[in-house]
Amino acid sequence: MLTVTVCVGSSCYMRGSDELAGVLEALIEKASLNQRVQLVGSFCMGECSTGISVKLGDRSYRDVRLEEAENFFYQELLPWAHRGENERCNNPG
Description:
The protein is α+β, with helices and mostly antiparallel strands. 44% of the residues lie in helices and 25% in strands.
């Protein structure tokens, strides 16, 4: 399962992290990824000056913008979710 962590610390919250998480949640549901992707919030991720912080697994993204949420989902999150599926298919066990 891919864990997607959205910073909800005060700086990111003021920049719209709550709304960003809502958009990502809706897109996860729309793509039927509920069984493969877990969306969680985290307090300060230490990148306050760079905009909203998001982690996909162990990879960090800075300055993720609400208006780019759909692009972020399709370009970054969706491939990661499918990559994990492909790895499980190639490595049964």
